[in-house]
């Protein structure tokens, strides 16, 4: 499973 | 963090500061679309839902607070401040932004990374940000003389997302698994919407004439 998208961008 | 993303965030910050400077110092919002400002407040409100739950970095949190605070205070200024609201041309700023919000919401319900409230809201905020500038661009076409601060504001707002595109390209080639179509397509559409504005802005700067968009 693709690593969950951490929303690190603004 | 890479140089493109930092440049993008700084450009975005500058666009907000230019607008706050204009509204706060000369107490005027002439040429500024309240509809676009309200859409941006909604974009930040739906994108930064996790501001208190997921801590990324001090920088990230501070920037989120700045964007949230500035976008809501600009809406407040344009709606409530007795001096500023007088310079708001309500007759010209007639773009029905509801017709932007609804399609973005429907699209977010269908196209998202995961069907959870936060993920749908996040996708919604990306789609909405891509089209949020439309009321402002329509207003610029209607108002004949575009003052420098307004022109600079729109230019910086468009430039920030262009920097982000370079950031996504950079991260795609340097980080495994970094594939986020929703972000990329929204960001590309957003930047393309500025294309003609950039064209006229660059020409007005090159020929040193007042920025004037064809009706």
UniProtKB/TrEMBL annotation, chain B:
Protein transport keyword on record: yes
Compartments (UniProt record): Endoplasmic reticulum membrane
Keywords: Endoplasmic reticulum, ER-Golgi transport, Membrane, Protein transport, Receptor, Transmembrane, Transmembrane helix, Transport
NAD is among the record's keywords: no
Residue intervals passing through the bilayer: 55-77, 98-115, 121-140, 152-170, 182-202
UniProt main location, coarse: endoplasmic reticulum
Molecular-function GO term, any one: ER retention sequence binding
Record membrane topology: Multi-pass membrane protein
InterPro entries cross-referenced by the UniProt entry: ER_ret_rcpt
Record GO cellular component, one term: endoplasmic reticulum
Entry superkingdom: Eukaryota
One record GO biological process: protein retention in ER lumen
Family the entry assigns: Belongs to the ERD2 family.
Name assigned to this protein: ER lumen protein-retaining receptor
Species, as recorded: Musa acuminata subsp. malaccensis (Wild banana)
